[in-house]
Amino acid sequence: MDVDAGHGAALGRALPKPASELTIGRRLRSFLSFQGNDDDPVTVLTRTHRAIHPSADAGVLRRSYAIAENMHRGQMRKSGDPYITHPLAVAQICADLGMDTTTLVAALLHDTVEDTSYTLEALHGDFGPEVAHLVDGVTKFDKAFYGKAAEAETIRKMIVAAGKDVRVLVIKLADRLHNMRTLDARSPASRARIATATLDVLVPLCDRLGIQALKRDLDDVVLYHLEPDSYARIDEHVRNRPGWDDYLSEVKAKAQTALRRSRVSAEVTPRPRHYYSIWKDTVAGGHKVPFDLPRIAVIVDGPETDCYAALGAIHGQWRPVAGRFKDFIASPKNNLYRSLHTTVTGPDGRLVEVLIRTETMHDYSEYGVATTYRYPKYAQDAEASGADQLTWLKRVLDWQQDTTDAAQFLASLRCDLAEAQITVFAHGHAFELPSGSTPVDLAYELGPQKGDQCLAATINGRLAPLSSQLRDGDVVEIFSETDGHVELEPNAPRGPRKEWLGFVKSSQAQLQINRYFDEKNEPGISIADKVRLGRATIGLTLRKHDRGLASEVPLRRLAEELGYPDLETMLVAVCERNLEPDAVVEQLIALVDHPD
Asked: Where do the HD domain residues begin and end (predicted)?
């Protein structure tokens, strides 16, 4: 919790100071002072929440905090802080984002099921199914039972849960952000491992959700832990830029004059870049000193056509730099980010970056999937925009079902998230694919059978090799064995080719091709499948006794009595015959018939 209040904290506080700097008592006092010097630590949380949602139920926040504080009482974090400071900080981050009351309640309770005796059934009974689903979605699998597969299976479980409710990922990101801010209490090896995992999976997830207000802080804290020297140099640069504010004020004034002259109503604000963004451009350009161009944002008060009028006004004021214009309004990014980007030669011949967008575009660029929770006025557009924004998540959910190996799933997810995206068109629809994808990748995007039977393709009307790399905007047609458009020789090979694995880019294509060639081997089975089989086995065994279960409460209670961390782990044990189904059912019947 002890963090520098300097640059880079869009949500709450910035980056951590070494844990050794503060005693436990001072840390606790520091935390309480952050909460606003109120005796009741929920006061600031409630105040933040009600500032955005005036009719929010403060009572349920206090009740959930009371349960969390009671269950975590006596537990301490590695930093020496009382454990309750962590869920409270996670809830505060969610409140700063503008999330709804249900999310805040789940954030306060997100570690209770995993780390205390508070059960998921009790949580369900106290706060309902939505909160229970969110908490269960971020609850990790127990390493003692799942070993090395625990991390990958936990991420798979979280992704599947997010398919039903994306707020699972918002809580997870807030949880990781606070953990990263307090990472100094861990060993250097642990810090590097956690920061790298955050950069590989959670930062790209945050980007796909479009929550830039959260991603900026994650980016900066990752840089702080992985590149401390670079972070220090950039920090020194940001704190010592002579005349920077005066220059931006001049740019702002001249931009406003140009906009008024063109009769465009807009607000112009400085838009300083965060540390990671500066570092990335510095490294990419091979600069010896931090590369940090002045930047302004033009927020247009009007329709999106006014953005182009504003662009004309800015280009009329200053000469644009060739090759530095991007139109993310006509072609939104895959996370629905929309804006015009241009770079101009500003006053004194200095380059200035300019972002132009409407107020709605600005809100979505900052908060992504959280926008409709923060601004209920956008709720009517939520269904359409949300469906587009989470297309990538639906794709991941589709191919994760075909992946029995958890490590392979995690590797494929990392690959999918790491790639830049292109949009291509086929059969009247647009498809997003990783940059460098080929017609084979597109064929598998159309369906496993279409991919397996892919024979040829045209790109923009011309026949092209299947290994050809597609470009953004290409129009592609796929020809397969069953189309009837291609004549096959009698002895021509059928199905995918192993050499395709040498050039396909998408996780979907890689998984389907590997699955095709591995199908002669004994099929694997995922933990999710084992849970389903274990549940079905118990159901069938109960039938032999002419019994059934109206709910899972008795099963969860039995899992607790048998010493399993959760019901899913017990069901896996049943599937693997580490627990005999007959013995489990006999104990279950006894538990139901004689609860005392």
From this structure: 83-180
